[in-house]
C-alpha cells in the first residue's frame, strides 16, 4: 500500500480559546511507523459509525457547497501541492472544532494507493496521557495517540469519484451519534451528502435474507449455517471498509446455486443497490435463536424479538404475533 503523500498538522485547543493551527512545513517521510499508524487509523475508522455519500456540486442557490472538492481536484491536477491543500483543510477544520470540540488533535492526511485504487484519508487524532519506561528504566509520562476516540475522519475513493460513472457512495465519513451538529458540520465542510442509508440498506438486506430462508423452508442447521456465513462475510467487509456485494454474498451463501439469493432479491424487488455499505451495529444484532424440545422446533431471527416475537419470562412462553404463512395454512387445514 504505497503512500504517495502524507502530512500532519496540529490543531491546539489547550488554551481554551480559539484553536490555533500549527501547520507542518513539509510532508512526512516514509517509515514503518507511519505504515503501522495508518493501518491502525484504518481499523479504527472502519469500526466507527459512518455515513456514505458523494460530493454535492452546488447548493440550490447555485453556490459551491464546499471548497474541499475543488481544492482536492486542483491538487490532483497539479495546481497546488499537497502541503498547501492539506493546510487549507486543516484551517477550516480548526474553525469547526472551535464550535463543537474542546479537544486538541493532530490532523493526519494521507494520499495512498491500494492495489489499483487510490484513496485520500483524513483523521483528527486525539491524545491521551500514558506512561513509558526510558533507557534508564525510569517511568516517564508520555503522550499517546488515542485512535479509538477518533471524532472526525473521512475516506474518499478517488478513482470512483473521478470515474466516468461515479457512484453515490465513494465518500465515507464518521457520524458520531452523540454529536449530531458536529457530524453535520463535518459533512458541510466536506461538501458531502448521503447517497445511501447504510443502516436502512443493511436492515433491508437482512429482511431479504429472512424471507429467503423462510421461502426455501431450510432445515434449522442449514439456516443457521447460512446466517453465520452472511454475518461473517458482511462483518469482514465492514472491518476492511468495503461494501457488501450482493452477487458475491449470494455465492458465499450457496456454492451449489451461487445465484439463488441474488435472484431472490432481484425478483422480489427490495430496492437494494448492487453494493451495500455494511452497518456493523445492525449486523451485530442479527442472530438466530433456536431450540428443540418434545417434538417442538423453534427458530427465529434475533431482531424479531420484541416485535414479531415476545418472550414472557414469568410464564416461560413465546408469543408469536405473525405466524408464517405455510404454518398458518397447515393449521387451518388441520382444523
Automatic annotation (TrEMBL):
This is Nucleoid-associated protein YejK. Keywords: Cytoplasm. Pfam families: NA37. Its main location: cytoplasm. One of its GO terms (cellular component) is bacterial nucleoid. It comes from the Bacteria. One of its GO terms (molecular function) is single-stranded RNA binding. The keyword Cytoplasm applies. Belongs to the YejK family. The gene is yejK. It is found in: Cytoplasm, Nucleoid. The keyword Cytoplasm applies. Signal peptide: none annotated. InterPro entries: Nucleoid_associated_NdpA.
Amino acid at each position: 500500500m504505497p503512500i504517495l503523500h502524507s502530512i500532519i498538522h496540529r490543531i491546539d485547543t489547550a488554551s481554551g480559546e480559539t484553536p490555533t493551527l500549527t501547520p507542518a512545513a513539509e510532508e512526512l517521510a516514509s517509515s514503518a511507523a507511519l505504515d503501522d499508524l495508518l493501518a491502525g487509523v484504518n481499523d479504527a475508522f472502519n469500526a466507527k459509525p459512518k455515513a456514505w455519500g458523494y460530493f454535492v456540486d452546488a447548493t440550490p442557490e447555485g453556490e459551491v457547497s464546499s471548497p474541499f472538492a475543488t481544492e482536492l481536484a486542483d491538487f490532483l491536477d497539479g495546481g497546488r501541492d499537497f502541503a498547501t491543500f492539506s493546510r487549507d483543510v486543516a484551517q477550516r477544520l480548526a474553525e469547526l472544532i472551535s464550535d463543537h470540540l474542546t479537544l486538541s488533535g493532530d490532523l493526519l492526511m494521507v494520499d495512498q494507493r491500494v492495489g489499483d485504487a487510490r484513496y485520500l484519508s483524513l483523521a483528527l487524532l486525539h491524545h491521551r496521557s500514558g506512561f513509558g519506561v526510558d533507557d534508564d528504566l525510569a517511568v516517564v509520562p508520555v503522550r499517546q495517540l488515542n485512535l479509538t476516540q477518533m471524532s472526525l475522519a473521512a475516506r474518499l475513493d478517488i478513482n470512483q469519484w473521478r470515474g466516468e460513472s461515479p457512484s453515490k457512495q465513494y465518500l465515507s465519513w464518521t457520524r458520531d451519534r452523540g454529536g449530531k451538529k458536529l457530524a453535520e458540520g463535518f459533512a458541510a465542510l466536506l461538501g458531502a451528502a448521503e447517497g445511501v442509508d447504510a443502516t436502512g440498506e443493511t436492515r433491508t438486506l437482512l429482511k431479504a435474507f429472512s424471507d429467503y430462508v423462510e421461502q426455501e423452508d431450510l432445515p434449522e442447521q442449514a439456516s443457521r449455517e447460512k446466517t453465520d456465513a452472511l454475518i461473517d462475510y458482511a462483518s469482514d467487509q465492514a472491518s476492511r471498509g468495503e461494501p457488501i456485494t450482493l452477487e458475491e454474498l449470494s455465492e458465499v451463501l450457496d456454492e451449489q446455486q451461487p445465484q439463488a439469493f441474488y435472484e431472490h432479491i432481484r425478483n422480489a424487488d427490495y430496492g437494494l443497490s448492487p453494493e451495500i455499505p455494511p452497518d456493523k451495529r445492525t449486523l451485530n444484532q442479527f442472530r438466530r435463536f433456536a431450540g428443540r424440545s418434545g417434538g417442538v422446533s423453534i427458530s427465529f431471527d434475533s431482531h424479531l424479538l420484541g416485535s414479531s416475537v415476545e418472550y414472557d419470562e414469568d410464564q416461560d412462553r413465546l408469543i408469536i404475533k405473525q405466524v408464517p404463512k405455510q404454518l398458518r395454512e397447515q393449521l387451518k387445514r388441520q382444523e
